[in-house]
Design goal:
The protein is an alpha/beta fold. It has three domains: 252 residues, HUPs (Rossmann fold, 3-Layer(aba) Sandwich), CATH 3.40.50.620; 128 residues, Isoleucyl-tRNA Synthetase, Domain 1 (Orthogonal Bundle); 47 residues. It contains 14 helices and 15 strands. It has a four-stranded parallel sheet with strand order 4-3-9-10, covered by helices on one side. A four-stranded antiparallel sheet has the order 5-6-7-8.
Length: 458
């Protein structure tokens, strides 16, 4: 099955057709670095990582970028609150973002452009919009004139009743958005000089110019959270497309919110969960699987119960994997069977991770039955190793290198031997009692065709 993606431009699934044969350019809107990101933020970032992994699974070479918004009202507020500098604040929280991304196994991007590194290009870009009559200046502020661009409103229908002339800045239209913000007293020394006076670029212009500079203004796929669809992505694309006359991106993908008590998780609402604390308590693999366990276009409510379920899923995969020789799993040739193709097809159907996980666990159940019946053959083993590698190439939640068992304590080994004797005598009650004792000592015991198998709990 060819890769199909739900395109927000058309509101339907479309077969993916890249601009270039095997080179795909993708861009994801990144963090505003004024605070530590929460788990809801990382649903979008892990989704972007998923997209790029599935593209690679399909044989594409990707050129990726996630921007760093390092100039913004919230950042300036934080600078003032902490009596610090712009660089100190943004460097601190950019590092936090990168460390969490690495912990969650988000693949490094080709580009992580910072907005402040492109201000000269932004000033030049805004001047071009003014010269082409798409923008105008009022009292040191520059606005995009949405009525000058007939295609404005590609993601939403603009309510005609909102298009009024009266507003505090005397904009031509209340929906005209800011390209350049004139300096305010509260901005302190955070400003740049321009032909319109001291100020700084608007958020929508930052992303537009970074895409124009890095990708010559044209992407295969642009990603972000659903809340960025309008106005950010609308405004971002309007600027570039007004100048260059073609689509900024052929495909726009938007991830749904991670909710808390039926509301979008956000710092402004104070209903967020710190991602670092979750990783420390549950492990990065569990958190990553939680973020990937539902389809990206499905609203998900944060749940500790769901985190526990994901932990059990990972433990099940690890117990299963220990039945096989994993020493050369990274070097195994990927020769796909029908099971593997079903998994791939589910991911190629608009990144349907929930279905893909279900297919993978159905395969595990099938192989576990063969293990229990002592009917596992070499072909089954090869298929399993291929599936384990394929699954992890996308989900990346199993550390195969760390699955070697530690030395089993003598007390645990004695209990295992006693349990084996009970099983020979068909004393299932005593077998269960001994299993519970083994579990209480931090070890999980699983019955296989080759006898009892132990795995240390995490």
């Amino acid at each position: 099955m060819n890769l199909k993606l739900y395109n927000s431009l058309s509101s339907k699934k479309e077969t993916f057709k890249p601009l270039s044969n095997k080179k795909v350019k993708t861009y994801g809107c990144g963090p505003t670095v004024y605070n530590d990101p929460h788990i809801g933020n990382f649903r979008t970032f892990v989704f972007y990582d998923l997209l790029n992994r599935v593209l690679k699974m399909n044989g594409y070479n990707t050129v990726t970028a996630v921007n760093i918004t390092d100039i913004d009202d919230k950042i300036i507020d934080r600078v003032n609150q902490e009596n610090s500098s712009l660089k100190e604040i943004t460097s601190k929280y950019e590092l936090s973002f990168q460390e969490i991304s690495q912990s969650l196994k988000i693949l490094p991007n080709n580009h992580n452009p910072r907005a402040t590194e492109y201000v000269d290009e932004m000033i030049e870009f805004i001047q071009t919009l003014i010269e082409k009559k798409y923008a105008y200046e009022i009292d040191g502020n520059v606005f995009f004139d949405i009525e000058s661009y007939p295609k404005y409103g590609k993601f939403v229908n603009i309510d005609e009743q909102l298009q009024i002339e009266d507003n505090e800045l005397s904009k031509k239209n209340v929906n005209d958005f800011t390209l350049w913000k004139a300096k305010k007293d509260s901005d302190g020394d955070i400003f740049w000089d321009s032909q319109w006076g001291k100020g700084r670029p608007g958020w929508h212009t930052e992303c537009a110019v970074m895409i124009k500079t890095l990708f010559k203004g044209q992407l295969d796929i642009h990603c972000g959270g659903i809340d960025l669809k309008f106005p950010h992505h609308e405004n971002e694309s309007a600027q570039i497309e007004a100048i260059q006359g073609h689509n900024l991106s052929n495909y726009w993908l938007h991830a749904e919110h991670l909710n808390m008590d039926d509301e979008k998780m956000s710092k402004s609402l104070g209903n967020f969960v710190d991602v670092n604390s979750l990783i420390k308590k549950h492990g990065s693999n569990v958190v990553r699987l939680f973020l990937l366990s539902a389809h990206y276009r499905t609203k998900v409510s944060f749940s500790y119960k769901k985190l526990d379920e994901c932990k059990k899923m990972i433990e099940k995969i690890e117990r299963f994997a220990q039945n096989f020789d994993l020493n050369n799993i990274e070097n195994i040739e990927l020769k796909f069977s029908s099971h593997h193709h079903s998994f791939i097809n589910s991911l190629n159907d608009d990144l349907n991770t929930a279905e893909a996980i279900g297919i993978f666990f159905s395969f595990i159940s099938e192989i576990n039955k063969k293990i229990a019946n002592n009917s596992l053959n070499d072909l089954d083993k090869e298929k399993t190793l291929i599936f384990l590698k394929l699954f992890n190439s996308v989900f990346d939640v199993i550390d195969y290198d760390n699955l070697e068992l530690k030395e089993i304590p003598a007390e645990v080994q004695d209990l295992v031997e006693s349990r084996q004797e009970s099983r020979k005598k068909l004393d299932w009650k005593m077998s269960d009692i001994l299993r519970d004792k083994i579990e209480s000592l931090g070890w999980h015991v699983e019955d296989t065709a080759d006898g009892q198998k132990l795995i240390e709990k995490k």
